Amino acid sequence: MGELTTMEPDGMEAPPGSARAADRHLVLVGLPGAGKTSVGRRVAELLGRPFLDFDQEIERRTGASVAAVFAEQGEEAFRAMEHELTRECAGGPPMVLAPGGGWVTRPAAVALLRSGSCIIYLRARAESALLRMGAALTDRPLLRGADPAGALHRMLAAREVQYLAADWVVDTEGLDIEEVARRVAALAEGRAGE
C-alpha cells in the first residue's frame, strides 16, 4: 500500500506475561466519536512518540475520503486496506495508533498487534459519541441515513464485547480530551491512579 507517514510529536505494568506498555504500541479503540484521533494525537505528544490515524493514512494513500472508498470500493476493500496497514505497523517502533471503530471486528487484524501492543478502549456512550462528531457525522459512511443514533447504538451493541477485550478501559464520559489523554499516558507510563 505504501509507506507509513506518522505525525511526530512537537508505567502501569502491562498485562502479565507481556512487555511494558512503554515499549509497545498503544492502540486506541472505540466507537466513532469516542475521541481516538484527538486523544491519540495528544497522547503521542505527551509520550514523545509518533501517532498514526488509520483513516487519515488510508485517505492519504488512496487520494480519496473514507466515505468515497466505502462508496466506490466497499467496506471489504476498506477493511483490507486497514489490515495491510495493521500488518505494516506490527513490526514498527512503538507508536500511538488510532484504527477505525470497526477494526476490532476483524480478529486477524487485532491478532497482528495483540502481542506487541496495549489496546485501550475509549468508552463513550453512543449519545456522547454522536454529539462529539457534530457535522463530521456526514463523513462516517456507516452512520449515514435517517437514524444515525440508532445505527451507533446497534454498532456499540455489536462491538462492545470486542472493545471490552482491550487491555484497559478508559471511560471518557464527562472528560475533555486533555484529561482522557493524560489518563491514557499515565497507564502507558505506569502511573495509573494519579
Describe this structure in words.
- The protein has a single domain (21-188), classed as P-loop containing nucleotide triphosphate hydrolases (Rossmann fold).
- Helices cover 46% and strands 11% of the residues.
- The protein has 8 helices and 5 strands, in the order E-H-E-H-H-H-E-H-E-H-H-E-H.
- The protein starts with 24 loop residues before the first strand and ends in a 6-residue tail after the last helix.
- The model is unreliable at 1-19 (pLDDT under 50).
Brief summary:
This protein is an alpha/beta fold and 194 residues long. The chain contains 8 helices and 5 strands, in the order βαβαααβαβααβα.
β-sheet strand percentage = 5-15%
How many strands?
5
Low-confidence segments, ≥5 residues, pLDDT <50?
Answer: 1-19
Distance between the termini: 41 Å
Structural class: alpha/beta
CATH topology: Rossmann fold
In percent, how helical is the residue content? 40-55%
- Give the helices and strands as they follow along the chain: EHEHHHEHEHHEH
What is the CATH C-level name?
A: Alpha Beta
CATH superfamily: P-loop containing nucleotide triphosphate hydrolases
Number of domains: 1
Q: What does the average pLDDT come to? A: 82
Number of DSSP helical runs:
8
Strand order of the largest sheet: 2-3-1-4-5
Q: Estimate the global geometry from the Cα principal axes.
A: globular
Largest sheet, in brief, is:
5 strands, parallel
Task: Report the radius of gyration as a whole number of Å.
Answer: 16 Å
